[in-house]
Structures are given as C-alpha cells and as structure tokens.
Amino acid sequence: MSEQPVDDMVVTPWDVSGELDYAKLIEKFGTKPMTGSLLNRIESLVGDLHPMLRRGIVFSHRDFDWLLNHIEKHGKSDFVLYTGRGPSGNTHIGHLVPWQFTKWLQDKFDVHLYFQITDDEKFLLDPINRTYAQMQAYAMENAKDILAVGFDPEKTHLIIDSKAGPKFREVATTVSSRINFTTAKAIFGFTESTNIGMIYHAAIQSAPCFYPSVLLGRNIPVLIPAGIDQDPYWRATRDVAEKLGWYKPTALHSEFIPGLGKGGKMSASQPNSTIFTTDTPKQAGKKVKRAVTGGRQTIAEQKELGGIPEQCNVFSWYRTIFEDDDSALQKRYEDCRSGTLMCGPCKQELADRVVIFLEMHQSRREDVEDLVEQTIIRE
Ligand code: TRP
Fold first, then answer.
1. pLDDT in tens, 200-235
2. Pocket probe mutation, ligand 1, options 101, 115, 118, max atoms within 8 Å of Cβ
3. How far is the CA of 122 from the centre of ligand 1 (A)?
4. Lower CB count within 10 Å: N or C terminus of the chain?
C-alpha cells in the first residue's frame, strides 16, 4: 500500500528517507553482509549474542573479520569502540538502540569507548536556523542520555567537538591534509554551495578513528557500531589510514529504527511518531497507542486474515528493543499472523513497556548528571 519504488531510498549521513532495502544498501555502499560464521566467532569469544546480532539487525560490516582475526591473536580487549551523536535536538529511542548494543560490546569485550558529539557539524549543517551555542547546549543534554545507557564511566570518553583539545585537532588536521576535494565530492556529494565547514567536518569525524592510538601511544584497532548512513566517513578514513601509519577502522552497521507512523526511520522532525527521552511517560504512552500498525481495517477482518507483522512498526519495536525473549517474540509474530492477537492489546502492552523504559531512563539520566564532566576528554 505504502510501497514506494526502491529508488526513492535516500541514505546519506544527513538524510535517511524512503523505503529502506538493506540488501541494496550493502551493494550501494560496498560493505559485506553479516554472516553466521562471524556470529559464531563472536559467540565463542564472549559466550552469547546480543538480540540485535541474533535477529540480523546488525546486518553489515566492514572488515569485522579482520578485527576478529586481530583479537583472536592479541586478546579480545585489544581494540576500542567509537561511535557518535549529532546533537541537533533531544535524544529519541531510535538513538538509544545502537547505543545499547555498543554498551553490550563494551561490557562483553571489556574495552574503552570513544563517543564523539558533533555539535560543530550540526551547526554547520544548518547555520541559518541553528546557532552554535544551541548545538553546544544540546551536546551537554545528549551526553546525559548517552551515559544513562550505562556505559562504564571509567572506560568511556566523550569527545565534544567544540571542546576538543590540541591532540585531537592535530589528528583532524593530519587527516584533512590527505583528503582532496575531488575525493570528498565523490564520497559525500558536496556541491559548489556546500559550506567549507561541512567539508572539513569529514576530517573531524574521521579523527576519533586514530585519536585513541595517539592517546595510547600505540596503534590500536577501532570498531565503529553505527547506522550505515555514516559509512561514507569511514570510507574516506579508510582511504588515508594506512598512508598515515594507522589501522583502517572497522565497522558494524545496524538497521534504522522506524518511527510509529508510516515507513521511514524514527526522526525528530516527526515528533508524533517519535518517542523522545524527554517526553513524559504519559505523552509517550499516547503516541504508542496512536501508532500505525500492520493490522487490518476491521477486527473481523483481522481475525479472519491475521495482521502483517512485517509491515508493522509496533512489531518492529518489539523486535529491536522491547522484547529480548526470542520465543516470546516468535509467539507474538504467530499470534498476529493467525488473527489471535489484535492491535489494541499489542499496542497497549508496548505502551506499558515504553513507559517503564522511559521512567528508568529518566531516573538514570538524573543519576549520571555529575558523570558528564568527568567523562569529557580533557587533554
Ligand atoms: N555525524 C553523526 C550524526 O550526525 C555523529 C557521529 C560522529 C557519529 N561520529 C560518529 C555517528 C561515529 C556514528 C559513529 O549523528
């Protein structure tokens, strides 16, 4: 019904829209699909698999096999994690999902995490409607959400671009010296009207791939768990890494979390189909109950034909974050298909879970307030 041609799909670091086809994205970005044998290797290193791995939500990678070879030789903690957030507004649940996965990686592999907050980028992206000061304020607010996910504060380092120190700048400058404008245009699609700050930002986002090596005084591999939309940055980074004497960064790509409306990823620009971490539990519950589902027009029809979980964002929220138990998820799927489970109770149950989740997140968010200052890297 809402079928759009796949060509409508837009996935860039600044825009994700249209009907997402993950197999096409692997082809388009030139990455590799996640495989059962890679999953087996993770499981034998750490003992189990996160639901996002078991369920194929982490669907693609760059050189993850290389990283596994490396740690099988040098020990499972011989790498660091790098991920990030562009603080253009309040955090929503779609952001927390990959961060929860990142926390799992941090716990299981017992590694340090470098978390970049690109307040500069978010200002440069829209300098007419935003101010740098606003984005810096969001950076500090978002930092609380990040830490509320439960990262180990002793092993977590926030890089807030506007506050980054001289060593960080040195890495960014070094990277920028090796990327020419022709390459940048080809990778990022910059045009004559792109402001030059955005062009330099490629080096700023690349820098955390090498910065840990500089801080540690030895070359250490970096694994980036992120959405595939950020991949162009890693492509540019990988092109220059070895020339500069550093390892190429490796990446794991996860699916986007849909909003509660029709199609598309969860987005702050559609506040009614997005749950922000700052929503009151009551507001959040209401939004869930208004969600578009994969259900039929009438209850009679649904009893007869069953719902379509594949086209249901409510089901997708259970799959990605709100149901850890595989057999409960499978049962929900079957009960929906068979017409036993109606959308009303299914949404109500999700709303209840979302409310509990939000209340917990919000109380943790208050608890970590004092940790923000101590986790920001100060050189
Ligand atoms: N550019 C990203 C955004 O707008 C933020 C970011 C910086 C990031 N470094 C990253 C995201 C590394 C993932 C991984 O959201």
1. 999 999 999 999 999 999 999 999 999 999 999 999
2. 118
3. 10
4. N
